[in-house]
Structure formats: structure tokens, C-alpha cells
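Quick one - first record:
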Amino acid sequence: MDLSKNKIAVVTGASKGLGAAIAITLAMKGVHVYGIGRKKDSLKEVAIQAGNNFEPITLDINDETAIHDWYNNTFTNVNTPDILINNAGIGFFSKVDETPTSNWLEMVNTNLNGVFYVSSTLIPDMKKKKTSCHIINIGSILGKVGRTESTGYCATKFGIQGFSEALFMELRGFNIKVTCINPGSIETDFFKTSGQHSHHNMLQPFDIANTIIHLLETPDNMLINEMTIRPLNPKPPNS
């Protein structure tokens, strides 16, 4: 895909962390980015860094009706997204018998249902396009291997892995690529909910964002459908 050819991208979870890095990097490459997030002030900060190619969209991806309304009011048949980055996600980490049902449901709603709502809204118009499109789902290393005190998060990220594989089979005939990226620990605020602290030996958000650029720029008939990215030495410095 040639990112300089007036491409349009939708990035969820764009208000901070990896999503913000992806949105900024795409915008700097000349892609028109619609960055979806729930925090209006944080999206404004991203917009300052991303420039005129970024449009902040305050929206909850758990609200299917709101997603449909926004999409239908924003895009026309000749002006629809070429790229979807399903990045929004949340994690709560505790023993299964100590996990509140509300935490479990929030992970399922954001990490699985939200991905379905956004994808199923954009895909019909992607199928109509004559040029290649690309959907990238941000999974996790915990969508490949289990870990104690991570049952809910693992369940949803294993689900994203299966969703991505099945979606690839459905959409390849329409020249729509589907890639699932499974990163290890990233230096963002994600770990605050678990009481852990991020550090510089973790993966860096903009390194992953630049990797996504490389994936998007592969030839139209070439697909990397799955990628696992790990920090080489994940332990905290001086540990």
C-alpha cells in the first residue's frame, strides 16, 4: 500500500500509549487519521503532535449505535477508510476467583465486542473498494501463551487471535489484508491497573508504530498475517 496516496485510517484507543503513537506516525506519513478514544483532552494532545492529518473522535467503542452513527455521518461511498487499527484494549489482572464480574465484562466488551463493532461497521465499504485495504488487530503475547492472574485478559486476546485468522480467510478474496500483532510488554500506562510499573526495557510504542508502517507498505499481494514482538531483555534495568 502506498501511504502517500490519500489513504484514510481509523485507529481505536488513540488517546494515549500505543494507539497515540500509531496515530501520530500514520499522520506524519501523510495518512488522514481518525483517532477514536474516550478521553477528549488526551485526544487533543495527540492532535497537537499529529498535526492537520489527525481528527480526534471522542467515542466509546462499546457503544455499537454510536459507532454506526459516527461512521454513517462521516464517510461517503467514495471516501471510506483504507486502514483499520483495532488497538483499544484494557486489562485487569487477578486470580480468577478474585476477579470482579465487572472487570471481566469490561475486558470482553472492549477487547472483543468493540473490535467486532468497529470492524463489522467498516468492512462492507472496504469490500467495495478497488484498492487494497488492511485491518491490523493489536493482540498480545498473552493471546499466544497463558499466564497466571491473567485469565480474562488471556481469554480476550486468544479470542482476537482466532478472530483475526478467521477474518483473514473471509476477506482475502476482497483484497483486504488482516494482520494480528502480538506484542509483549510495552512502556505505557497500561500496567497501572495491575500495580506494575513500566520501564525502558519494555517495547517502545513508536518502534511498534513504525513496524506497523512497514506492514502497511508491503506489496498488495504480500501479507504478514501474524507477528509476535517481544522485548529482547524485558526485565527492569538493574534488576
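second record:
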Amino acid sequence: MKKIIEILRENNLEELSQTQLDRLKASEREKIEKDSTRLYTRSLYTREGILYFVAKEDGEKSLYLCSHRVLPEDFTGQVEQFGDLFLKKAPFSTDNAATLRTVFPFTAPVSLREKRTTIGCGDRLGIASAAHIRAIRKYQAYPVLAQQSIRELNFTNRTFKRIVADAGFQVFQEGYEDGWGADGDHLKSIEDVDTALQAGMPMITLDLTETLHPEAVRWDEPKIEEEFGELPQAVRKHIDQEYRDLVFENRGVTVRLPRLEARRCALMYLDALDFAALMDRHIREHRGEAYDLEISIDETSTATLPGHHLFIIRELRRRGVTVNSLAPRFIGEFQKGVDYIGNLEEFEGQFAVHCAIAQAHGDYKISIHSGSDKFSVYPAIGRYTHHRLHLKTAGTSWVEAIRTIARTEPELYRRMHKKAQDFFPEALKSYHISADISGLPDINTLRDSQLEEYLDISESRQMLHISYGGLLRDSEIRGPFFKALSDHEELHETIIRKHMEKHLSKLGVKKR
């Protein structure tokens, strides 16, 4: 820790007031370096005679506390004394993250229900949030930095507490005090929701897949009438009275829900909507009103028809569910890590209807799942939502991290590429994509300078995108991969920041 003390004394940091530190943080000087040791200037805060900051020493980031008096034991870590200064190195542990939240509440995630534009960042590695913050703080948008599904946690050997901690430390590193979210993504059970709530996650994305009855979409009229007749009389009466040839009109949009289709919707969705109401009450009991519930109906094999969207939101409102955002399945293909696949005019026409429905029923956010890299449809999404939206990204930052490897560590990239090819059949069991990797260029024939081209070919980009589980659990890859990203931290953050800025710009989000 000697180099860190030298940085502090050479810059007189331990003697500066918070006002003086804020002037330094507002400058273009993002870090102070001495040899291989780096102090992140935006993390400089003083509280009750203690200077707090994030620094990187020997390739490892930690939280540091410095004072002229003996340091409190709230934070666990190693303490050394240098003359009249005490310095504590507190590792980025979940316990230290919890303590940090008590001292600096802005490092805790909050509800973003009142924020117009929110971006799910999905940092699978736990080291990209700083770059996400640097991009988003330039725009009139707010980040959901800690966003992971149970599937992602299993593939990366992380926990909800870990991802909240990782994001919180980077929030502190960047001195970001505008508010950020944390999302337990695609949760299907009360047990998983409780795990996310216990980790302090204010946003829950409730995946209704397992309580839906999608088979009803294929039933003919006699089958629908037969199954509908098995529902309780009170339910049948409500559906027939409430949806008797319903016509919805708003912003020049007309949606009709005929009697037969309303009955089909009842058979498809009512169980799922009852489950959503149960979960909404459960979350409210734990968090009061400080939560963001997203309803996900996008994990289906067919697009969500506007009439079905109308039925779903009317029934959710009838049940008193507080809907912050809703994710329909849109027409066309929203596959992982690549642009929209489908007819743009057809998408725009149907998307406008979904937005009109949302705006007339509480103006909840339309949520775009698998939303990264869909640059061709972003202008329409921004226009029709008036930027009241939630965009979910996740794997794109993982893929762009691999771009850093392709540029700087070609041999490591080659090993990752070959292992991704081997793991690809297994990865396909968890993700639906249409990539055919059989026609990819043979990596053995490419020069090192050509490797980055794989990140711009849809098939190889998708292959790498969904193979993260196999790669990150591979002992031959994991250590060298994270070391390379640490060694090339500035390039990694620049690539991620620019990629996220491209998303915000294409959506038409205004700059601050």
C-alpha cells in the first residue's frame, strides 16, 4: 500500500475538504497513477475525518479508507500505519458493500419507477458497470446496472448479492449519485423473487412463461367454447360482459377484441395474471411502494397480438397490479447480440399499437427484451414510446469485452473462439438463435489483425454471445480472460462505453 500513500501525500488528498475533492472530481482527470498503482479520482469522498476512495494495486481494485486516527472496524480488511496516517484496504466483498451502502446510500440500488428512460445493462462479468455509467450519465436516462437472470447466475457462478455488490462498488468508483437500479431478471418462482429481494434488488422481472397456456392459441372455436365452459361461472360472466366485442381507440389506433378471442385470452392468460397479482402483493409487503415490477410475456413462440396485450393490461389493472413495465413478444426476431430480423414496416406498425395501449393504461414503460444491437428499430422505438421505455441489454457487453481480447491478446482469443465452437451445441439448449456457424472462416487461416472481424459477423457474434457459460467456467480461460481485461482496462471501458452510447444515440435519447 506504499504507492497509494505516496499518491495521497504527493497530491495532498488526505487534507482536502469535500468541496476541494469535488473540484478535482469535476476535472478531466479520472485517475491518478504512480507506476502500476491507480487511484480513481471520482471515488474520493470524505466523511467524519476519513477519506474513502477506490484504487487499483497489483491488478486488484479495492476500497480504501485513510485517516489520521485509528480506523473503525465496520469495514473488514488489512490496516497499515504510515507515520501519522492509517490506511485500510477493504476488499470488494458483499459484506463491505453492505457497509458501504450505510455510509454512502447512493451505492444502494433504488426504484426507478418515476424515471422515463431506463437501460438494463446486464454486466455478466461484474466489471463493466463503470463503463455503463460513463455512457449513460451523458444522457437523460438511468441505468439498471445489476441485472441478471437465474440462468446467467448459474452460468457465471455468481449470486444476486454479488452482482449488487459489484455494481455498488463501481457506482462508488465513478461517484455516480443519480440513482441506479438492480433487476432480478426473468424470475418464475416466489423463492427466486425472495432471493432477489433479500439482495436489495428493487426491480423484479416476472416471467409468466410457466403459468401461461400458450397451447390455446392453436385451438379452434369448439375447443375454446368447451374449455371456456369449464371456467367458474363468475369468471365466464366477467369475461363476456367486460369484453363483449371490445373496441379500443387511442392516438389513431384501433384494436378490436371479439368475443371468441377474449375467451381465448381468458384461457391463455388468467392463471398467469393471478400469479402476477400474488407476486405483486408479495413484493409490496417487502418493499412498500419502492419497487419496479416488470411483466414479461415475451418468452413465447408467437408474437403478442395487440388485442392480447389489451386484455392482459386490463386484467392486471383490475387485480390492482402495479405495472412499471411490460415486455410483449414483438413481431419479427429479437435474437441475441444482432440486429432486428424481420420486416421493419410491419414491426413499426404493430409496435405503435403496443405503445398506444400502454399510454392509455397508466403509461407504463414498454420493455424491449434481447434489446441490444437492434439499431435498425431503435429510431421507431424511441419515437413511439416518446422514450418512456426500458431497454434490456446483457450479453452485448460480454461480447464487446471479447473485442478487447481480440485486439490485444490474439492467442487467448483463438483459444476462446475454438472453445466457444466446441461449447456451442450445448449453449443452444438454453438460447434460441438461428446462427449457422458452419460457414465461418477457419480461424487458423486468419492473421491476428483479422480476429476482431469475428465480432462483426452475426454468426460468430451470436456463437460467442451465448457461449459465456462454457467459457467463464473453463479454468483455462477464466483467469487469463479477467487478467487481460484488467491489464487493458482503459481499452475495455472505452469499447463498452462507446457501444452503449451508440444504443442511446440510436434511440434518440437526449443528452444532458
